[in-house]
Amino acid sequence: MNPPALAPTDALLDLRNLSKRYGTFTALDGVTLSVEGGQVFGLLGPNGAGKTTLLRILATLLRPTGGTAAVAGLDVTRQPDAVRQHIGVVNGGMGLPARLTGREILHSFAGFYGLSREQAEQRIAELDAALDLGRTLDTRAGEYSTGMRQKVTIARAVIQDPAVLILDEAASGLDIFARRALLDWVAAARRPGRLTLYSTHVMSEVEEVCDRVAVLHGGRLLAEGTQLELLARTGAQTLEQAFFRLVEQDGAAHAS
After folding, report:
1. Origin, by domain of life (predicted)?
2. Burial class (CB within 10 angstroms; exposed 0-12, middle 13-18, buried 19+) of 236
């Protein structure tokens, strides 16, 4: 069975007062955010800012402590199975079965989403053209370079053409050529009705590929907008300067 059709919605991501606590530690603190499709949306913050916690909630791997989160109009807590049908996830630590070729891996995942063999082959051909999969398709994953592994990992995540693609530090550990290929693909993949969430602490990646940016620090959402809007809000000349000014303002507010 193919993934169920989505109800019409402008916001592919809708967070309302979303929180996550571990005992006395607050990983997410009342985050409210609405994001429409047709864009690459950046989540910017240092390690420990709450980015990965947020994305794991969206991927239905964690349950929030408070508030709500909806992906493509589907509640992550009440409709987790439906959410999983409409998302793809890539992070820096995902592995591939070493004995399978790229084509076998992609066919296996296509089957999870109800694609026929013919549909899967058509989709693999599309992804080959977009990602230049080349010899990864007929080479066993155990023989892959880092760049080859990341290409197949991305192709696996988008085999069903998900409404929301989650990239969590996806460029981490990549060499310069593999990183370049990833950023080029992310920039080219934006289209109506689809949303890419790009989480990183690398400013240059956000500046290059993201249409809008949310700045997280200490589990709190400090600001959200286009890069120009964030520069105007802070009076900064660069995104890095804007980020540090937002963090400094947040620190001063919580110290008083």
Report:
1. Bacteria
2. middle
Contacts of residue 147, defined as CB under 8 A and 6 or more positions apart, other chains included, come to 174, 175, 177, 178, 181
d(CA 213, CA 49): 14
Nearest to 105 by CA among 92, 34, 94: 94
How would you write the pLDDT of the chain (256 residues) with one tens digit per residue? 445 444 444 799 999 999 999 999 999 999 999 999 999 999 998 888 999 999 999 999 999 999 999 999 999 999 999 999 999 999 866 789 999 999 999 999 999 899 999 999 999 999 998 888 999 999 999 999 888 888 899 999 999 999 999 999 888 777 888 888 889 889 988 999 999 999 988 899 999 999 999 999 999 999 999 999 999 999 999 999 999 999 998 877 776 6
CATH architecture for segment(s) 11-32+42-94+162-255: 3-Layer(aba) Sandwich (3.40)
Buried b (16+ CB within 10 A) or exposed e, 49-84: bbbbbbbbbbbbebebeebebbbbbbebeeeeebbb
Q: Which residues are CB-contacts of 175 (< 8 A; sequence separation ≥ 6)?
A: 146, 147
pTM listed for this prediction: 0.89
Do 32 and 17 touch, CB atoms closer than 8 A? yes
Give residue limits of the domains in the chain.
11-32+42-94+162-255
Please, are residues 88 and 160 in contact by the beta-carbon 8 Å criterion?
Answer: yes
